[in-house]
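Researcher: We're teaching a course module on how sequence relates to structure. For the next exercise, students receive a sequence and then see the predicted structure as tokens, so they can try to spot secondary structure elements on their own. Here is the exercise chain.
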Amino acid sequence: MKFSRFMELALYDSQEGYYSSDRAKVGREGDFFTNVSVGPIFGEILAGQFLEMWSILGEPDDFTIVEQGANDGQLSRDIIDALSGTPLANAHWIIIEPLESLKNKQAHLLSGAHVSWISSPDLLPSFCGIHFSNELFDALPVDILQAHDGQWRELLVKSESDGFFFSPKQNLIDGMPLPPRPDGFLTERRCAQKELLQGISSKMEKGFLLAIDYGMPSEDLLAEHRNRGTLACYSNHRRDENPLERPGEKDITAHVDFSSLSRDACAVGLDLRGFTDQHHFLVGAATKLLQSLDGKTPPPETLKKLRALRMLLHPETMGSQFKVILFSKGGAESQLPNGFLHARNPNHLLENPCTNL
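Model: And here is the predicted structure for the students to work with:
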């Protein structure tokens, strides 16, 4: 079995998958932290970015916000609450969610909000607006590649009486667009991300795609010290590197290759606009909030938000590990939202992805 199929079953099987069986727990009492775990400040900052994007797009009356990978719906809840009383308070809100168990959680948390659900990007209506995600691409199944004799081969999953094990496929992969690495070097490849991006791009008439995830450009992923790849598992805030043990009982993830993501996005008609780490994104995106506090003693509630923001910014927690990437379509090129004020040239950082299809 391809590892991507094994990972898909372990995470998304309707009965025993980690995400669909109610085993996935986020936060201090769960298996891992996300940006949403620190409180509503992350959603409030994204709400400000969405208002900027709406303005950049010409303030259209018919505006749609799409979230994919919404987990329990908390990020949607935080953003919707922050948009209350703004021109986007009545925007069309769509969540793409194939798992019925997660849809039920989201519907409970978002009770009273004007939200609709679909199971895949292909079911989106044509729209002008924003598609956003927080830790979506890292959860897409990956295949595992191993360097061998100057080329690459795939590791398959086999079973025996006492469990599962990896076994290299005999045939080497022809035309693999990866540089040679020493024998045994491991890396991952996501085959489903281009199809996902195609589904979104085909329905987006004009708008932005914003993705927040952890990972790095291809050059960094293929650095000598990452010869074991980036595949990792999490349970009770403990990390291990054996995804074949206890399938369905823990999260399985791998770093996002943002160079590959950019190439796939550009190939389906999206334009790369910005790429930066979460620290610089949040500093830019929170500029108005921070300016409003200049010379003032913040009230206790604001101090609480600032402590949460500090955790999101800190390079040893989430500030440098997470990256933010922005694509546009349909002529949304005149301006960038404040989150990318401090970003460097994305084509340089990601090795000119739009000119190397």
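Model: If you want an answer key for the exercise: The chain is about 30% helix and 25% strand. The radius of gyration is 20 Å.
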